[in-house]
Amino acid sequence: MADRTTRIVLITVDSLRADALGLYGAPPATPNLDALGEEALVFQNAFATGPHTTQSFPGILASNYPTTGGTVQNLASRVSVAEHFRSAGFSTAGFHSNPLLSRSRGYARGFDAFWDSLPEPGGGVQHRPPRVLDRISACVARRSPLLFGLARRAYRASARRLRQIELPHESAETVNERAIEWLRSAGESFFLWLHYMDPHWPYATRLPGLSERERKEARRLSKEALRRPGRLREDDVARLREFYLREVGHLDECLGRLFDFMKGAGLWQGTAVFLTSDHGQAFMEHGITFHGDLLYDELIRVPLIVKAPGIEPATRGGVASLIDLAPTLCQVAGLEKPGTFEGRPLLGAPPREAAFAETAFRLFVSETPKRVAVRTAGWKLIRSAEDGAEELYDMAADPGERRSVLASRPEVADRLRALLEDHLNRERPRLERRHEPPSGAAEDETVRARLRALGYMDEAE
Question: How far apart are CA 228 and CA 287, in angstroms?
């Protein structure tokens, strides 16, 4: 059980698979995170609540499953852990550059200092087409939908070139700069959330030491992986994974510099440091790249490392869920968790019997997921709500989830179905609808541009 601390740092990394870290068995070492693991409680089998950022972060920051509240796009009706800390007197700050976690989606709530690398609401010039152009566009759309569609695509392509967005996210170095500047005057009671994007697609865009030939190769393969993954050869996929692991290695170096600053500033001892990821990344294990709407372990198994005063370093087996992360943040700070949190503290408690993950092709509009999984220490059951199809995997004998044993192990399937039904029929907390800050036209377009550059075409429409 951890001692109470008033200094807490939550580090989340986008698209970071557990098996990309040395302490989880990756061939390339990640020395700084491996060293963190030597001081920490390392959960070997931790799972996100969904395979996308928007489906995972309600679990991370608000301890809610994606289906709770009927929508997953923002924190509009959820109590975030940052709000809870600030109401308890903690200084709070959050720094990242993921447009899916932007101020306009409610993620700034609860933070005294918040930076998402997007324009401040109301700041800058909002370029609005004259109303007469609106009327002309509407007329063309009615009379010639095909022509309008072609013109719109041409406009968007031109606008993307004019905006000259070199990369869809800021570097780990930039996030570090923000964090270190804030930590210099943070005081003795703070909650700091840092989200790093470097392992996210596209790969190897800013890695030091790459030749121009390698950068061109990385850009080509990244584009192919997003648009036409079926054309990738086996050696292409291996090369993509190599670029991805090099991104993870670079991130490890940057986190090492952050940790060194904290140690030099006397902040390391006595500060709780949590590290996890929102989801993994696929490399054709089940026919997709990027992070699609599947619930296999390459997409939902994530690292979970907890360093806190009073915790004895250890490796914990069993199953853990990120639904329990926010309650554990409260636990180490000596705070009661809010009543809307669906998880429970991880420390001093036995492992979960099962973890649950849900997906609905990124957009939830009801409390019924289109696909759901239940994962125990040894088994996984995946169910499609669209046609009722199920898959059952023996994770000890088949960790790659290649052969469903649904027909041969009916007793296991029945046990996992019962757990799944309990989860789907659980009593959900009542969430209060809140007013979201309006986002300006300029911010909206910047968000859409960033999403397109990150490969999220449907969220950008």
Answer: 11
pLDDT band at residue 29 under the 50/70/90 scheme? confident
Number of domains in the chain: 2
Rounded CA separation 436/311 (Å)? 38
What is the per-residue pLDDT across 216-260, written as a single tens digit (0 to 9) for each? 888 888 888 878 888 889 998 899 999 999 999 999 999 999 999
CA atoms within 13 A on the CB side of 130: 3
Domain that holds residue 386: 368-427
Whether residues 342 and 417 fall in one domain: no
CA atoms within 13 A on the CB side of 431: 26
Q: Is 396 exposed, middle or buried (0-12, 13-18, 19+ CB in 10 A)?
A: exposed
The answer on pLDDT for 130 being more than 60 is no
For residue 87, the domain's CATH number is 3.40.720.10
* Amino acid, single-letter form, for residue 112: D
Token pair of 104 as six digits: 């306009």
Do residues 273 and 421 share a domain? no
**Alpha-carbon distance values, 352 to 46, 307, 331 (Å):** 10, 20, 17
Q: What percent of the chain has pLDDT over 90?
A: 57
3-state secondary structure (DSSP) of residue 127: coil
Is 360 domain-assigned?
A: no
The CA dihedral of 274, 279, 284, 290, to the nearest 10 degrees, is -120
* Distance in angstroms (rounded) separating the CA atoms of residues 74 and 105: 5
From CA 1, how far away is CA 409, in angstroms rounded? 38
User: How confident is residue 163, by pLDDT bands cut at 50, 70 and 90?
Assistant: very low
Examine the domain organization and report whether 388 and 301 are in the same domain: no
- Whether the link from the prior residue into 202 is cis, omega within 30° of 0, is yes
Over residues 273-283, mean pLDDT: 96
Same domain, 305 and 409: no
Where residue 377 sits, what CATH number does that domain have? 3.30.1120.10
Q: Which residues, other chains included, contact 320 with Cβ-Cβ below 8 Å and sequence gap of 6+?
A: 43, 45, 46, 47, 304, 346, 351, 352, 355
Per-residue pLDDT at 12 exceeds 90: yes
Q: Give residue-wise pLDDT tens across range 357-375.
A: 998 755 555 567 889 999 9
